[in-house]
Each structure stands twice: as structure tokens, then as C-alpha cells.
Fold these 3 entries.
Entry 1:
Amino acid sequence: MVTQIALASFIGPCVIACTLLYLLLKFDSRLLAHDRPTERGLHERTVSRGGGVIIVIATASCGAGLSFTGIDDGLDWPVALALGAIAAMGFADDHLGLSVRFRLLAGFGLATILAMATIGDEQWVLFGSTYPSQAEFVFLPAVLGLVWLTNLFNFMDGADGIAGVQGLIGTAALAAWFALSNYPSLALMNLGVAGACLGFLIFNWAPARVFLGDVGSLTLGGWFGCMLLIGTSTAGIPLEAFVILLGAFWFDATYTLTRRLLSGARITEAHREHLYQRLILANWSHQKVALGTAALALVMAALASAVTRKPEHGLWFFLLALAILLGYTVLVTRICKSGRPSGQR
């Protein structure tokens, strides 16, 4: 019975996402926005944006389906409402365009709600040591971390396949972690998100017909942030495991924004300086970059999962992951400087 529910939790959202997205693209639905080629972009043709709305719908369907089996989705209603509000804000930004100030203020407000609803009272585990849960000390870092994670996928949703593949691998790993930590409802919900990401990835793979858009990228980032806080403050999953799991994304974004700050560039201005963007500008195909991102994400997921099984070695796994990410950055820099053609789409 449990196996059947798990399969349904994964396959159901996948089919729903794939079917809905096929119909939205076929009939050029107004639910999707359109990105036209610009000098700041990486595409030479118009591509639909906002396909992440089907991940939101498919995941909500998974939660509704679980309720019929008698299994709660594991999320309190303030979490569901805040994630829904993030999705609504992203949808509005995709279609109407919201000011940076409004997005930041709304983002901090929703992150505050999510932090209040997800920070538990269990001990935190970091590098093999346990620390008492003191909400007054972790609340502000939690809010800032949620705002960062909420925007992380948005920064990285610029090349075919990479956001979809990171979402799929990340939530699949989370499903395994929560299952092993005896949180079956959260495991099933993450399976649902993974299935929805797979259905989306079918149309997001190179050559991409659709991108997450703000509605999908902001919501996925918020989802990972919620899972981090619940996992670390309630389920006893080591904090560094989550940091490693999303290493491919947060390292690229953090490194790029730090470089731009040091050079005096505006961080809110559109650019093509992310590591994945630089590879494509160095004549790597979108598919090759997506495959490289998938390989890196799988390595990070393996190291992060090792931390959950051997938390006493968490520091060494973290340092190994950091060394791999630094090596990846050096490799990208050398490739871009050499300008070697590696196949262009």
C-alpha cells in the first residue's frame, strides 16, 4: 500500500504537469508569458515563461490526493498560504512586472511567515554537533536564508533544463531523507514536487519550449527553504546536508553576485555573468550545460545524502563539496578564457 501511494504521488503530478503544460503550449495560453530575445538573454527565439505554474498546480493536487488516503501533507496552513502567495506574486511579476522594492518587501513578509511556521523546537545538527533550538537566535538568519533561496532559482532559470533538473534531483533527495527520518507525509509531498518537476522538464529540456518563470522559480525556492527549516529544526537532518544539496545553484549565484558587487555593477541589473551563462557564451550548447549541471547536482546530492547517514563526518563532506564547486568554477573560467568551441545550439 505504501509503495502504491509513493508511486501515485510521483507519477500523478508528473502526468498532470506534463498534460497541462502540453495544453498550455499547444493553445498558447495566456497563463504563460513570453520572453523575447534580448542582448541580456541566451536565446535567439521567443520562449514561453511561467510554466512553473503547473508545478504549483500539480503539487497542490498531490496534497489533495494524499488527504483522500488519510495522510496529511505535513504542512501547516500558514505554510501553504505563504507558498501560494509567493506563487501569486511570481505569476503577477511574470505578466505585469512588479517593482524590485515591492518584491523585496513582499518577499521578506512572506519569508517571515514561513520562518514562524516552520522553525521547530528540536535540536539542530551541524557538523556532527547538536545545538539547542533557540528561535530568537535563528529567526533572522532563517528569514534572510528564505529570501535568498526564494530568489535562487529565479537567478538560475536562464538556460534550458538546469532549473528543472535541479528541482527534480533536489526534491527526490529530500523525499528519501524525510522517509528515512520517519516523516512519510513530507517524503510523499517531495515525491510529488519531483514528479511535477519531471513533467515540466520534458518541455524545459533543450531546446526549451518553456521556463519556470517567477511563479515557478520563486515557489520552488520557497519550498526548498521550508524543507530546510523543517528538516533541520524538527527532523534532525544536518544543516550542511541542505547546503550541499543545492550547492550547484547557491555557489554559482553567490559567486556571481559577489563578483558583480566587487566590480561595482548593479546586482539588480540583468546580466550574463553566471557560470552557466558564461559556458553558453563560450559556445557550449544548452544541452551540454544542462547535462553538466545534472552531473554536478547528482554529486552534490550524493555527498549531502552521505551527511545524513554519517553526520559525524559532515565537515569533511562539506569541505569536499566546496572543493568540487571551486574546481568547477576554475574549470569554467579556464574554458571561457580559452574560448574553445564545444558545440553550439
Entry 2:
Amino acid sequence: MAADKKLGIEDFARRLETALGANLSSLLLFGSAARGTHVAGRSDLNLLLIVKDASVAALHAATPVIAQWARGGQPPPLIFAEAEWSASTDVFPIEFEDMRDAHRVLAGRDPFEALVTRRADLRLELEHEIRGKVLRLRTEYAAAAADGKALGRLLVHSAGTFFVLFRAVLRLGGGAPPAEHDALVRETAAAAGLDASAFDWVLAALDGKRAAELEPYDPVAGKYVDTMEKLADYVDRLET
């Protein structure tokens, strides 16, 4: 793709495949760039690398290529060994299903063809993740509440993580999460009985629209935090 070439993904994939040779099992792009919501200069390029042998010695051949990629401002790829990947479906069901929904294979095979996750594992990880993220959000809100600009940054920076959890909530209910942020918010709010307007400000900010600068102790931020707590309560009540 032309976008891949512009972002340097094609070159990175080719060099990594050459460096690893037969040890490379899969290399894929996932996240916003694969979903079509990537924002240049703000979104990361997320890559997953699966190798047959993930020992330190076996990865030495690829480290110069990965180091150069990281120096360009992108996160290094997540690296799994083949056996580790197959054995981790009960640990990372949210992440695996999120990747499955939005990924593009750059080299090797598609690692999702035979991958199966369980609903009970998804429910358990979702409860753990959302409680942890709400706890962190509440803590960071307390530190930022007196500074309107800091509140705005907090909402914007936290949204991406919560969107991942929104998609997991919809999958748990048997739905297919939409790629667009506004549709994702509406469907999650409808499923969980939330007020979707709590996310209006952050959606506007993420879409590059002119969002009013938040004031200290701004009720917009307070409503956002309270709504995330209600989402956590909803997940608590879900049955496996």
C-alpha cells in the first residue's frame, strides 16, 4: 500500500524478514493504522512479531533493524514465540480479539487463523482491566483537577485505552465493534446504559475539532470520570 511505503512499514517488514529468515513466523500491523483511524503524528504504528525462537540469541539478528525503527519514533513490535502465542489466549483475550478485528499481515502467516479465545477469559480480563484503568483515571483526575489544560490532556490520553475496553464490552455482548470512535461510543453507551454525551468533548478533541478549553474542576471531566466508573459497575454485573 502507498500509505505503508510512506510510513516506512514496507521497508521495515522487508528488512526484518531478511534479518530473521526462517525464524520469522508472522509480522503484522494492528491497531489504528489497520483500522483506518490512524492520525499521522499522533497515533503509533503497532506491530506484532511472532518468531519460532524468541531467545535472546535468536533475536540478535533483528535487533539492529528494530532499534532503527524505534529511533524513528515508533514503538518496537510486540514479540511472541510461537508456543507462547498459542498459550496466551486465556491471558490476553481482549488484546488478541482487538488485533484480530483490525490487522494486516506484512510477512509470514496469519496467526489468527487457528486462534480461539473463550468468553469467560474475556469477561475476567475485562473486569480486571477496566477496574485498573478506572482506578488510575480517578487517581490522575485528582492530581489534574485544578488545572484545566491537564484535565484536557488526561481525557485525550485515556480515551484510546478505554476505546479498547469499549470494543471488548461489545464483543462480550456478541456484537461487532464499529471502527469509528463516535459509533463505538454510542453503541457502548446503549449497551451499558450510559450517557453518551459524557464523551462529546473527548470525541471532538480526538477528531481535531475545536473543543472548548476545560476549566479547573470542569464538570465535563467529572462527568467523563463518573461515566467510566458506571461502565466498570456494568461490567461487574455481567455474567460469564
Entry 3:
Amino acid sequence: MNGGTLLATLAGGADLTVPMRLAAVLFVTALTAAAAQISIPLPFTPVPFTLQPMVVLLGGAALGSRLGMSSQVLYLLLGVAGLPVFAASPLLPQGFGRLLGPTGGYLLSYPLAAFAAGWLAERSFDRRYLTSLLAMAVGLSVVFACGVAWLAWFAQPAPAGLSVALRTGLVPFLAADAMKIALAATVLPVVWRIIGR
């Protein structure tokens, strides 16, 4: 299967110009930053509940692997530069230090997760609900794998260890994130159907 991305199709099959690619990347970067502002701190974990993973995966699938990844690299660069694009944190200020803290692994996973969802979308996984759900699940698995590994072994000021990282960085989010990707997986197939008509 090789059907191209939603972005390329919306562009009418023409080669995407540099301004079109830049605008798409900036749009998804801005959506990711906006989703970070919808943040719910949880008392039993240093990882807040946000809508970011859903935006990262949808953006990656819509833009494709390279542009989706680029949007998240740009998001991280803006955050490292100190712009207030990361979720609010009582522990760490905005800026580079956030990548060293408990949520660093989740944040650093975003380019990889967007790439994975985009790569599968480039192979038409975003055209039907079940394959779209699979693409979202693969991307979310990347987010959780990186986030939990970072929390367990690398997070500053003190790594949590694997059992604590699983208990605080994975288990509390599984049900809600499963619902988020179940919802996200409906978006692109619906858009493809509308375009097909």
C-alpha cells in the first residue's frame, strides 16, 4: 500500500512547495503547544495528563513521517529555547531543564512517535479505522516506551526505577490514552471518506 499522506492529497497531488510544508509543520507545532496547555496534574505521578500524544500522532499521520517528525523537533526546540510551550510544571521551569525531568522521555519521544504514525499513514494505514487505530497504537507505544524508560533510569533529580516508572508513568494513563487513540483513529478515515466523495 502506498497512498501518500493526507496533506499531499489535500494539496491536489501536486508537489508540496516549501511554504506549504513549512505552514503545515508550523500548524502542527502550534497545535502541540496548545495541547500542552490543557494539562491536568495528578497527585500520584509527576507526569500530567495532556492531549499532546493525540495531537502528535494525528499530526504525524496527516503530514507524513518526515514533516510530522519535523513538527515535533521544532516543538522541542521552541521549548528548549524557553518559550512556554511545555505543560505547566510545579517542579521545573520552561526550558532545557524540562527535558531532564520526569517528563523528558515523553517529550523526546514525540518526533519518533510522529515519524512512526506518519510512516504507517504513508502506507495508507490512516484510511480505515482499524489500521488507523494500529498506527495510533504504534505511535503511543513509542511515547510510553521512551517515557517510562526515561522515568525509570534517566530522569533528574532521581530516576524512579522500573516498577515505580510503570506504576506512575504507564498504568494511570492506559485507559485514558486508549480512549484518546480510539477517538483519534476515527478522524483521518472520516476525512479520507469526505475527500473521496
